[in-house]
Write a structure and sequence with these properties.
Layout lengths: L2 E5 L9 H8 L4 E5 L6 H10 L4 E6 L1 H11 L9 E6 L5 H5 L6 H10 L2 E11 L2 E5 L2 E5 H8 L2 H7 L3 H10 L5 E7 L2 E14 L3 E2 L3 E2 L11 E7 L3 H12 L9 E6 L1 E7 L4 E3 L2 E3 L3 E14 L8
Parallel strand pairs: 1-2, 1-3, 3-4
Antiparallel strand pairs: 5-6, 5-17, 7-9, 7-15, 8-9, 8-14, 9-12, 10-11, 12-13, 14-17, 15-16
């Protein structure tokens, strides 16, 4: 197996980089440290041209996000397989794929060679054309992400997202949306947040879409309606007890496509990437990337 490893030296568990090297270093392995100067799509294209067949994302959800966007620039016929070694703060998508947090066990899945074709989501808007694999979170979710500093991430770990929410809960902003979800239309609905979920968890293994599967050709639409403080308490309580979708403030459905307009404009984070452009359309790309996973039957 000829493999290309993108690694994030600054990821939450990057101190375990030595174990990563020991598990993956072969004469057929190319190593690339991920930074702003690296052209991921170009690097992958050159790797494929040279006969490469497996690209590995060693880092957190942000690293996986960068590699997914690079892979989607390669034609489906030539697109290499993807492996994930979770080294980040949250590793949400790796969790959905049943990939262990233990580095050696995650590498063992790659060596075992069991893959499944996972979906990705294509997101478009004015000046925007991107992909994501886990969750796009819009509205007040973005404000939580903006609260996070490197110090908070380091001190709180996966709980940093809950810590970031403290400053937002007392001043929730309302967004009036109009949405076309496949053949259903929603007009002038006041909301706190909209999530488009391909994976089950977001923001540090918080389960936001328990019924989502990255291998069913659909994504889950989660809409959190505007309300009062008591409504927010109910949402948080049900989330902590695994009954998030049972809240009266939460609407959910499965879809292949959604067109979304919001006033004021709703910004999103895509697997940790904050985008300033307002998304207009989300559409699933089924069976887009063959990926090394844990229990295949757990994805459906």
């Amino acid at each position: 197996m000829k493999q290309l490893v993108f690694y994030n030296q600054g990821a939450g568990k990057a101190a375990q980089f030595e174990s990563l090297r020991e598990g993956l270093d072969t004469p057929e392995t190319t190593w690339v440290e991920l930074n702003r100067q690296v052209e991921v799509a170009t690097t992958i294209d050159q790797f494929v041209t040279a006969g490469g067949d497996t690209v590995i994302a060693a880092g957190g959800d942000g690293t996986v996000h960068a590699i997914v966007n690079g892979l989607m620039q390669i034609s489906l016929q030539q697109r290499p397989r993807m492996g994930i070694v979770p080294l980040g703060t949250a590793n949400d998508f790796a969790g959905t794929l049943q990939i262990p947090d233990d580095i050696n066990e995650a590498i063992g899945l790659i060596h075992a060679g069991i893959t499944t074709a996972i979906d990705v989501i294509h997101i478009r808007g004015e000046g925007l054309d991107r992909y994501f694999s886990n969750v796009a979170a819009g509205g007040n979710c973005v404000r939580v992400s903006e609260e996070l500093t490197d110090e908070i991430k380091s001190r709180w770990g996966a709980l940093c997202y809950l810590r970031g929410a403290v400053g937002v809960l007392a001043d929730m902003q309302s967004f009036r949306i109009t949405a076309e979800i496949d053949d259903q239309r929603i007009e002038n609905l006041d909301t706190w947040a909209v999530l488009i979920a391909n994976g089950k968890t977001n923001a540090g293994r918080i389960e936001v879409a328990p019924e989502a599967s990255p291998a069913d050709g659909l994504f889950d639409v989660i809409i959190i309606r505007d309300g009062n403080v008591l409504d927010m308490v109910d949402i948080v309580a049900k989330n902590l007890t695994g009954q998030f979708l049972a809240s009266e403030q939460v609407m959910s459905c499965k879809a292949k496509r959604i067109k979304l307009l919001s006033e004021p404009p709703m910004r999103f984070t895509l697997d940790g990437e904050l985008i300033d452009e307002q998304p207009i359309e989300f559409e699933v790309v089924p069976a887009a990337i063959r990926t090394y996973v844990g229990q295949v039957n757990a994805l459906n």
